[in-house]
Structures are given as structure tokens and as C-alpha cells.
Specification:
Layout lengths: L29 E5 L4 H12 L4 E6 L4 H14 L5 E6 L5 H13 L5 E6 L14 H21 L8 E7 L1 H4 L5 H19 L5 E5 L1 E2 L4 H4 L3 H9 L4 E2 L1 H13 L4 E4 L10 H6 L5 H4 L10
Parallel strand pairs: 1-2, 1-4, 2-3, 4-5, 5-6, 6-9, 7-8
InterPro entries: KR_dom, NAD(P)-bd_dom_sf, PKS_KR, PKS_NRPS_Biosynth_Enz
Organism: Chaetomidium leptoderma
GO molecular function: fatty acid synthase activity; oxidoreductase activity
């Protein structure tokens, strides 16, 4: 039987598989989830509980917070998580409402808020020609003013361990009939970078299509999903989103992170492989050269 001799010198480089550190949250802290009663929001609450959170604060505009709170608590307890969930009904785009609600949380001697995930949104889709000012501002409110109000409330370096906004790829690449939503997402990306530059935690996750949970899944928006896929968006599962949130918590000063896009349309490959005549880039002669790369 032959022998193998290994010779190792100080200059030898040995490839290793790094150990992935599991995200652990503080049981003596509260974590805020804006929009936590939606499909993605509920999944986030479960994920936070699985990773050590014991006190959750769900902020929602909905007037029926009591029924949704009870449902979420039943879900969490049924999976064995001993989590205290508090519901706050307020409009985060109105600073007075938000400040009063969060100040009340502090006066109730609850554990201090150390993490924030902002998943609030409002869609008012329409082509720009027909979009009213009210619809434009309604979609912007939670993304722009809401994000800014949260930023101002948690503006000290020691306030939060993480500040995460669930944004959208729409803010990066645009999409017909969603210029208002696109502007809101672009603002969140800029705000995340601004916070990071100020030494404050800030991450904006530009998500593609989330098919398993959330608005598109719950509203069965098949045509919208198909249109987004034609423009290069790829489908994400809730596990993909939760994994991205874990990464954002572990790298809280990362700024804007993008996931859920097929880069093929920008290089021509996706269009050629799928014979996609409807691609916006393919119809634009300025990008015709990409078809031949």
C-alpha cells in the first residue's frame, strides 16, 4: 500500500470551509417589525423568534390589530416559541403618531428596542400619465416619510443593532405603472447608505419577486409576476428573504443589497435563450448591441 507524504510550510495556503455563524438575537431586547401582520411580516416574526427574540413589536396601520395580534401569537406559541408580541396601530409616515407610540412602549418598561425591520408598503399602480397626486403620495408615504421618521427616531449610534428596510428591485431597474413605488425604493437605498456613512446601522434589501408569501402571493397577481419575470426578475422564496435578513443583521452597515434579478437581460443571454421579444431592453435600439454579445 502506497504512502502519501504531506509537506506543509509557513507559506502553504490551505483551503477551508468557513463555519457559518448562526444569527443570535438578544432575549432582553425588543425588535420592531413594521408591517408584521402581512405574509412576509409573519414569516419574519417567526424567524426572529427562532433566532432568540423574545419580545416583538408589530407596527401596523390596520385598525384590526387585536385579531391579527391574537392570530400571530397563536402561530408563534404553536411552534413552541415563548414570545411576547405587542401590536402598535399607527401611521409611520406621521411623526407625531410614531413618536407617541414608541414613547409609550418605552414608558411601559418593555425591553429597549434594538432592532428594526421595515416592511411597510402601499401600492397605487398606474402609468404616470394617469397617476393622481394622491396615488403618487400614498405609495411614497411609508417608503419615504415612514423610513425617514424611523431614521430620525433612532438617530443615535447606540439606539439599534440593525435597521433594515425591505425595498424592491423596482427602485433599481424601474417598472411600468410603478414609478411611485420605484421612487420610494430608491429613497430607501439612499437612506441606508446615508445611515451607514453616519456610522448608523442601515441596510436596504432590494427584493425581486417573492412568490411564496407576501403581497404578490396573497393577491395571486399572476400577470404582474409574469411581467416582472419578462423583465429579468427571478422568483424568491420566503427562505431567500429570511436568509438575506440574517445577512443584513450580521452586516448592519452594508447599505443597499440587491437580490432576485436575472442578469441575462442586460447581456442578451436571457433574451436569446428565451426568444423574449417583449423585453424592454430588446425593444430599445440603444441596447441592440447587447443582443450579439
Amino acid at each position: 500500500m502506497g504512502k502519501i507524504v504531506l509537506s506543509v510550510t509557513p507559506e502553504t495556503l490551505v483551503p477551508v470551509i468557513p463555519r457559518t455563524a448562526a444569527t443570535r438575537l438578544r432575549p432582553d431586547a425588543s425588535y420592531v417589525v413594521v408591517g408584521g401582520f402581512g405574509g412576509i411580516g409573519r414569516s419574519i416574526c417567526h424567524w426572529l423568534a427562532e433566532h432568540g427574540a423574545r419580545h416583538l413589536v408589530v407596527i401596523s396601520r390596520s385598525a384590526n390589530t387585536a385579531g391579527k395580534l391574537e392570530s400571530l401569537q397563536v402561530e408563534l406559541h404553536s411552534t413552541g416559541h415563548n414570545v411576547e408580541v405587542t401590536a402598535i396601530g399607527c401611521d409611520i409616515s406621521k411623526m407625531t403618531e410614531l413618536k407617541n407610540a414608541l414613547d409609550e412602549h418605552a414608558r411601559a418598561r418593555m425591553p429597549p428596542i434594538k432592532g428594526l425591520i421595515h416592511g411597510g408598503m402601499e401600492l397605487k399602480d398606474s402609468v404616470l400619465e394617469h397617476m393622481t397626486l394622491t396615488d403618487h403620495n400614498t405609495a411614497l408615504a411609508p417608503k419615504v416619510q415612514g423610513s425617514w421618521n424611523l431614521h430620525q427616531y433612532f438617530a443615535s449610534p447606540d439606539d439599534l443593532d440593525f435597521y433594515i428596510m425591505l425595498s424592491s428591485l423596482i427602485g433599481v431597474v424601474g417598472f411600468a405603472s410603478q414609478c411611485n413605488y420605484s421612487a420610494g425604493g430608491a429613497f430607501q437605498d439612499a437612506l441606508a447608505r446615508h445611515r451607514a456613512e453616519q456610522g448608523l446601522p442601515g441596510v436596504s434589501l432590494d427584493l425581486g419577486i417573492v412568490k411564496s408569501v407576501g403581497y404578490l402571493a396573497e393577491d395571486e397577481a399572476t400577470k404582474t409576476i409574469e411581467a416582472l419575470q419578462r423583465h429579468g426578475f427571478t422568483a424568491l422564496s420566503d427562505d431567500d428573504v429570511l436568509s438575506a435578513i440574517g445577512s443584513a443583521i450580521d452586516t448592519p452597515f452594508a447599505g443597499a443589497l440587491t437580490l432576485g434579478i436575472n442578469t441575462g437581460p442586460t447581456t442578451g443571454g436571457h433574451n436569446n435563450n428565451n426568444n423574449n421579444e417583449n423585453s424592454a431592453l430588446k425593444r430599445d435600439l440603444r441596447f441592440a448591441c447587447l443582443e450579439h454579445q
